[in-house]
Write a structure and sequence with these properties.
Order of helices and strands: HHEEHHHHHHHEEHHHHH
GO molecular function: heme binding; iron ion binding; monooxygenase activity; oxidoreductase activity, acting on paired donors, with incorporation or reduction of molecular oxygen
Largest sheet: 2 strands, antiparallel
Family: Belongs to the cytochrome P450 family.
Shape: globular
Keywords: Heme, Iron, Membrane, Metal-binding, Oxidoreductase, Transmembrane, Transmembrane helix
Number of helices: 14
Number of strands: 4
CATH class of the largest domain: Mainly Alpha
InterPro entries: Cyt_P450 (IPR001128), Cyt_P450_E_grp-I (IPR002401), Cyt_P450_sf (IPR036396)
CATH topology of the largest domain: Cytochrome p450
Structural class: mainly alpha
Strand order of the largest sheet: 1-2
Oligomer: single chain
Protein name: Cytochrome P450
Radius of gyration: 24 Å
Helix content: 55-70%
CATH superfamily of the largest domain: Cytochrome P450
Length: 307
């Protein structure tokens, strides 16, 4: 005998209330800052508007510069003053430095292999040290100075040519985006992988429109609140469609990054002992081969750092 739809919904609600009650009963009792009363299951998500930072500002004016909320089943402490920020980011930074496990870290950062989503452990500490001493040191940045100068000069030539030929206003943001992409591409990947125009370039390039879509999706999905991260039993439903978008994006990004790494591996094999690292991917691949690393860097780790 099949249950009526209302009975199924009632069963889910009752199960959720029971789990929430057990969660509250078994969790440790902490002295939390003041904050609004939380609803069952959703917590204080009902107080978040389309601009969450505005909502948090309005709540902080009522409950103070240090307040507690609950997003779904996840307790959240919000600091919104200079003193609170100093306490969280400086005085007690080791207590707050860890990262939660989220769908974004799993699907868009190679299972939390990037600096942004990696938990605070030996892997993260090693990664930070490598970025400071090997990848973004003053010496390394100096090596890329010519690329920055060349791309800025190219942008200025394009601006002059476009304004001279049409006499109309120029969309400066498009030129700035291309200049930034070209500088980053040359520093990190060794050459320009992004080209103008929607018709596409050669086999080893992608269009600015395609690359722009990838980056916009990446930034959005890494900043959006996925409801399944705060109400775990809703994760499989993917009610916002974010996980589906993350999976699609990860496939496109991985295809692009695999192409980049294959080309760099081929040059390393071709040059042999005469190989010299020319960009960040070269350096990352060399580091991944280093047997003295405390925590090995996998190929997925190289792609996560590159991303």
């Amino acid at each position: 005998m099949e249950l009526a739809p209302w009975a199924s919904i009632l069963a889910v609600v009752l199960a959720t209330v029971l789990v929430t009650a057990l969660f509250r009963r078994n969790r440790k009792s902490y002295k939390l800052p003041p904050g609004p009363r939380a609803w069952p299951v959703i917590g204080n998500l009902n107080l978040m508007g389309p601009l969450p930072h505005h909502s948090l500002y309005e709540l902080s004016s009522r409950y103070g510069p240090l307040m507690s909320l609950r997003f779904g089943l996840v307790p959240v402490v919000v600091g919104s003053s200079v003193d609170a920020a100093r306490s969280i980011l400086k005085t007690n930074d080791l207590a707050f430095i860890d990262r939660p496990r989220t769908a974004a870290g799993k699907y868009t950062a190679y299972n939390n292999s990037s600096m942004l989503w990696s938990p605070y452990d030996d892997y993260w500490r090693q990664a930070r040290k490598l970025w400071q001493t090997e990848l973004l040191s003053a010496k390394q940045l100096k090596l890329y100075e010519h690329a920055r100068g060349e791309e800025v000069s190219a942008m200025l030539r394009d601006l002059h040519a476009e304004s001279s030929s049409t006499g109309a206003a120029v969309a400066l943001s498009d030129h700035l985006m291309m200049a930034s992409l070209n500088v980053i591409s040359r520093m990190v990947l060794g050459k320009k992988y992004v080209v103008k125009g929607s018709a596409g370039g050669s086999e080893d390039t992608t269009t600015a429109e395609e690359f722009g879509w990838m980056m916009e999706e990446l930034f959005f999905l890494n900043g959006a609140v996925n409801i399944g991260d705060v109400i775990p039993w809703l994760n499989w439903l993917d009610p916002q469609g974010y996980i589906g978008r993350m999976k699609r994006l990860s496939k496109v990004l991985d295809r692009f990054l695999e192409k980049v790494l294959d080309e760099h591996d081929e040059r390393r094999r071709r040059d042999g002992v005469a190989f010299v690292a020319k960009d960040m991917v070269d350096k990352l691949l060399q580091l991944a081969d280093d047997p003295n690393l405390k925590v090995p860097i996998t190929r997925d780790g190289v792609k996560a750092f590159t991303l």
